[in-house]
Design goal:
- Helices cover about 15% and strands about 35% of the residues.
- The strands form 10 sheets. An 8-stranded mixed sheet has the order 35-36-38-37-39-40-41-42, with helices on both faces. Strands 13, 14, 15, 18 and 19 form a 5-stranded antiparallel sheet that branches.
- Helix 7 packs across helix 8.
- The longest helix is centred in the first third of the chain and has 17 residues.
């Protein structure tokens, strides 16, 4: 009887597990999202790291080698005169004598924020407020010796000297929407990925910073309703394609003499300065510049004393220079690294400190996709490459002198790494399309020291939920020659003899990739659960397939990308299990733009959803638009051909247009003007807006509401 009962219980449990399944709400709520680890902040020596405890009450120092805690640098509950119990984030000085913590974080744009900062004197176990200024602070930066801290408050640079318990104002001309010192404007943050242009010299005697004058940049505004009887407006400087940018200057502040001078740079007024960085020599401030067309990169060495700048490196392209490669410049005492595409693929190069090319460190018909770290003592560079396939990433090290590369990542799939200072250790995150991430710590030789997170509980959950597996496919591009990478998710209980509707999900922007051999559990799995075949295809212009493939859309955005989605849809319509009369397309941001282009330049799509789409590149910012299109004045025909607004009269199929009204990135103006064009062309469509939501349309119930609406739209129209 007992045996029979246990067997029956097992059958019931097994039936419940097999029937567990998943819902759209599960996907949106992150039920199948992998676990990560708390940020590990490397110490200056690269042998230790700092982490906040789980309650954000303490900053603890650990050994990379053993994982053991070796010290507690700050504890809010035991520190003297500490006015708070928890904090939101922290920084540690290079000498570990001071810990900076912040509270009351206030987001500005995508990356930038301001907060109220406190510093903890480790030796005295004493907490003090960083400044008595009423305004919050931004981008705090320790000097190399840890005795000073520079920060920005109300667009001005301030300097705190801890040994003297003093602070002083370095600049006094900062003003919102006019002058920015040390920090960056909207375009620099969004398109160059930097919020700080401020650096100390290695001898702690000079503070260099970029001054941005956006006085002449035109202002954009949008209304914020926020349940107010009289809604207000948010106004900020946003240079649209062809319009005037901020004027930028590099300035150097002599800390002892308290004098500020401007560096003499032989560049055009509308050039960009996306990075500044000192070499190991305090008389060499590396200033990295791009011309407005972004097809010429120059790096100068400036002497902070004489303010004279000398050209060290120039890299030119018939297309454009990817600003990401500026992050690949790392200085050794007599050499520096740089990633260039001069041989048709992105590869590592080593230069002498005078700018003379010494050698190409990597080569082959694959792309190096990131430089991670440099160990100057061992003469080793650590990097990431798409060596096996554009779908995968591997972690390598290469000897500068011997030129010999060694793969450090052991498993095929998608590997990304975070290295300690000087490349002594790294945390590797590996996954493939079927396996959630495994996060492990390795030494510089690729020896695994310990697993930090294996996501075993998620693996078990995935097995019980029976999420469908991605199948990687190849489809022909519109040119009839190029094979494009794609993936397919088939619905549950798939039968090859049945005809299914298809939804193609894509992004398609320059150097982007949606088709990768990595784990993700996104909203579109719910579409497959509703009986759709879901497919993604990376068209020409996407990443990790060499410069010609990646930059073939130059000056003509939207043409090859839409042609390839149309060609892919036509190919899919020939498959025996696809109903060619029921193919839809989906995209967000650039992907939304390509939905509109694809539905206007072909007739294969019956229904499409475009979320927060650019509809005319004249509406978008200078840096991004002009990188790929130059200015509207230089390329009027290209802008006209790339405009979804111009093509509105040719739209086919059912369209659902969605956007947040407070989108500071792709402005609601894009949807308004596209709507105006559709009305003029007598094209009927559906539209939905999210009040006061930005480009990401998240928070509250927004994401669940959005994707519920999207799934319902496809069910009704496909």
């Amino acid at each position: 009887m007992k045996k029979t009962f246990l067997l029956s219980l097992f059958v019931i449990i097994a039936a419940c597990v097999s029937a567990q399944g998943f819902t759209l709400q599960d996907m949106v709520a992150g039920k199948f999202a992998p676990r990560g680890i708390a940020p590990m902040v490397s110490s200056a020596d690269g042998l230790h790291y700092y982490q906040a405890d789980p309650m954000n009450t303490a900053v603890v120092k650990y050994s990379y080698a053993t994982g053991d805690a070796v010290d507690t640098l700050f504890n809010a509950r035991t520190a003297r005169e500490c006015p708070f119990d928890t904090f939101e984030g922290f920084l540690v000085s290079p000498d570990e004598y001071r810990v900076l913590v912040y509270r009351e974080r206030e987001q500005i744009y995508r990356h930038s924020f301001k907060a109220t900062y406190y510093y903890h004197d480790v030796r005295r176990n004493l907490v003090r407020k960083l400044t008595e200024n009423a305004s919050k602070q931004m981008i705090p930066t320790f000097s190399p010796d840890g005795k000073m801290l520079a920060y920005v408050c109300d667009n001005n640079v301030w300097l705190a000297k801890f040994d003297f318990d003093t602070e002083s104002q370095v600049t006094k001309d900062g003003e919102f929407n006019k002058i920015i010192n040390g920090a960056t404007d909207w375009t620099y943050e969004e398109e160059f990925g930097t919020t700080r242009l401020m650096e100390f010299s290695p001898d702690n005697r000079v503070l260099a910073f970029v001054r941005s004058d956006e006085s002449h940049v035109k202002e954009f505004s949008f209304q914020r309703f926020e349940q107010q009887l009289y809604p207000d407006y948010y106004r900020f400087k946003y240079p649209k394609a062809g319009e005037r940018n901020s004027d930028v200057q590099v300035r150097v502040f002599d800390i002892e003499a308290r004098t500020t001078r401007s560096v003499e740079l032989p560049i055009e007024r509308d050039s960009y300065i996306p990075r500044i960085q000192f070499t190991d020599n305090p008389s060499q401030l590396a200033i990295m510049t791009l011309n407005r067309n972004q097809n010429c990169f120059d790096m100068y060495f400036a002497d902070p004393r004489t303010t004279v700048a000398k050209l060290i490196l120039r890299d030119e392209s018939k297309y454009y220079i990817d600003s990401e490669w500026l992050n690949s410049i790392r200085f050794l005492p007599d050499r520096f690294t740089y990633i260039s595409e001069k041989d048709g693929y992105s590869h590592l190069y080593i230069y002498g400190i005078s700018g003379t090319l010494i050698k190409q460190l990597t080569s082959g018909k694959y792309d190096v996709t990131k430089l991670y770290a440099v160990d100057p003592q061992a003469g080793v560079v650590f990097y990431e490459a798409a060596d096996e396939s554009p779908l995968r990433r591997s972690v390598f090290k290469v000897s500068i002198d011997k030129g010999q590369s060694t793969k450090l990542s052991a498993q095929n799939g998608y590997n990304t790494a975070v290295f300690s200072q000087k490349g002594k250790f790294f945390v590797n995150r590996w996954s493939d399309a079927k396996t959630p991430p495994v996060i492990a710590l390795y030494d510089a030789n690729g020896k695994q020291l310990r697993v930090l997170e294996d996501n075993q509980s998620l693996r078990t959950l995935l097995t019980s939920a029976k999420l469908p597996q991605k199948e990687f496919i190849a489809v022909p591009a519109a040119d009839g020659v190029t094979q494009l990478n794609g993936w397919m998710i088939k619905p549950k209980n798939f039968t090859a003899s049945q005809k299914y509707p298809v939804v193609m999900v894509q992004y398609s922007g320059p150097n982007s990739q949606e088709v990768q051999d990595r784990y993700e559990a996104d909203w579109y799995y719910a579409l497959a659960d509703e009986g759709f075949v879901v497919i993604s295809v990376d068209g020409r212009g996407t990443g990790a397939r060499g410069e010609a493939f990646r930059k073939g859309t130059y000056l003509n955005l939207g043409i090859q990308e839409s042609d390839d989605q149309i060609a892919a849809a036509r190919h899919l319509a020939t498959l025996p299990y696809v109903d060619g009369s029921r193919i839809g397309i989906w995209g967000w941001s650039y992907g939304g733009y390509n939905v509109l282009m694809s539905m206007s330049r072909g007739t294969v799509f019956k229904a499409g959803v475009a979320i927060a789409p650019v509809t005319d590149w004249r509406f978008y910012d200078t840096v991004y638009s002009e990188r790929f299109m130059r200015t509207p004045q230089q390329n009027a025909e290209g802008y006209r051909n790339a405009s979804a607004v111009e093509l509105a009269g040719k739209l086919t199929g059912k369209l659902l247009l969605i956007q947040g009204t407070a989108d500071d990135n792709v402005h609601f103006q894009n949807s308004i003007e596209y709507t105006r064009a559709l009305i003029a062309a007598d094209k009927h469509f559906d539209m939905f807006f999210f009040p006061d939501k930005n480009h990401f349309i998240n928070g509250d119930n927004a994401r669940t509401y959005l994707f519920t609406k999207v799934v319902k739209f496809y069910k009704e129209n496909l």
